[in-house]
Amino acid sequence: MLTINGDEEITVGIAPLLGAINVAATPIGTVDNALEHKDMTIANFSKTRIMGSMLQVNHIRLAYEPRLVLDDVSFTVAPGEKAGLIGVNGAGKSSLLKIIAGLLDADGGTVMLPRTYGYLSQDVVHEDPVAGEGTVRDFIFSSTGLDAAISTYEELASEVGLATEGELPALLGRFERAQNELDRLGYYDADARAEQLISGLDLGGVTLERYVRTLSGGQKTKLALVRLLFQAPDLLLLDEPTNFLDVEATAWLMDFLERYNGAILIISHDLDLLDRAINKVLRLNEFTHKLEEFRGTYSNYMTQTGDALALMERTKKVQEREIARLRKTSDKLRGFGATRVSQRIAIDKRIATLETSMPKLPQASRRISIDFPVRLASGRVVMRAEHLFKRYGAKEVFRNISFQVERKQRLVVVGLNGAGKTTLLRILLGLTKADKGKVIVGDRVRTGYYAQENEGLDYSSTVINEAMAVLSDDAKRVRGVLGRFLFSGDRVFQQVSTLSGGEKTRLALAKMVLDGPNLLVLDEPTTHLDVLSRNIIGEALGSYYGTIIAVTHDVEFVRYLQPDTLLLMPEGRMLAYSSEHDELLKRA
Ligand SMILES: Nc1ncnc2c1ncn2[C@@H]1O[C@H](COP(=O)(O)OP(=O)(O)OP(=O)(O)O)[C@@H](O)[C@H]1O
Ligand SMILES: [Mg+2]
Questions:
Q1: CA of 97, closest atom in ligand 1
Q2: What is the pTM of this model?
Q3: How far, in Å, from the CA of 5 to the mean position of ligand 1?
């Protein structure tokens, strides 16, 4: 049991420790960070770790003073149950998952975990970077202890070869145990299983022999997910795992999760995924800071809550109409003076009752409100790419790409993972060098770049300093724009590294607005955003007065953007956009 409660003892189950205590158990957790959990002690490990069969979260409370984030949050996820954790950006979803995984201390409450669990963070790149000197195989196998079992087996095999007759019986006993351990860990089809996951998540081309350190950032993130799925723990804790996957890999993951035998607690803003892969919705209410539970898929949840809301709205309207009617009567009676006093009092009483019983509609979420101003228009030709070639080592990314983008044109770049979309954008911006070819930037072009994975943000800075760095001479405007992106009051002094995923995206977009560019280069700008914010940003960009080059596979977002052209990667073909291409976008 993982106990999280002020001064109580805290224990976390970790593979190497458990190995020594309970040989039959599979390793616990892939949370390597948990090893450093500050209050963990080996001494009380075996005493207090009561392995439950399911996840039980009891009365969790968390405040980032003075702000309350989680208030008395309790729920369970039973074996095999699949729960989706939803809520607006900043509601506290990631914080809750970190508390469960033992990476963050709550202010109160307890967590009981099933025997094995694994966690994937929303920001793998910054929070839990994949590192290591070994191969991809070692890294994946280490999630179940298979790597260690293999080396023990190999050592014993060579010792057996060299042993004298006297040593042999004892050695053979150990050798047999090592063999059994390999069997138990599924050694014989382990390569095949790992390879299946690698190709499913579209890490194509990465072999098990590759060294981890030679992988790109994006590939490492996917590898972290592969390792977790390979481990196949009793409980998977996933924080927006599809953010870095293209549509095909997302679909594969959905299938995988749907068929998964263990329990799942997943945070996602992907409505498709929430509809297919879960059977229970846990909504973190951003006003009450409490958790609301609904049986069924996201659609079921929407019908339930939507219907409830519609009913409340209807009731409220009817009551309001009734009150207005009664008021009129009451006023009329007043004209009759003393003769009708008792009737009037009765009516006023009825009005008072109706008023107090009026349903209170839930508070609507705060909306960001934005527009993207252009300070100065660019020349007619904004950008021209001429015969661009790019390869990374032996792998060709694309060849001979040429195109031109003109003022106010909206170009959406489409292609599978690895088709070189981000690379192309970076070449256009001069951040990466092409092997051959050139990019010509037009007159008076002022570019705003939204990079994947929040690359453009300084994590050690604060919200206000990041924004002031863009527009240092106009503090009032900076505060105004930050306010419209929902950073007001003391929130502007918050450190960037502690912002939630969606808040980081909002800050990056706010910086772009402050700069007033006439060319927006956007790399997947809607990942991390909740549905409401996604629509608002979509609307704002729809009426943007400048030029847009965007990489996205969010079909809804593309509809807002109303692109005139699609650029298909890696072949570099330009197509006039029509809504028939939505299918293509979905697959890209
Ligand atoms: N160390 C901290 N200090 C102050 N505030 C913090 C800290 N860590 C997180 N927060 C705030 O707590 C709130 C909850 O953050 P959390 O990351 O849990 O949100 P989330 O629901 O996962 O949001 P998103 O959908 O954007 O990922 C956010 O408003 C965040 O800014
Ligand atoms: Mg989050």
A1: 18
A2: 0.77
A3: 20
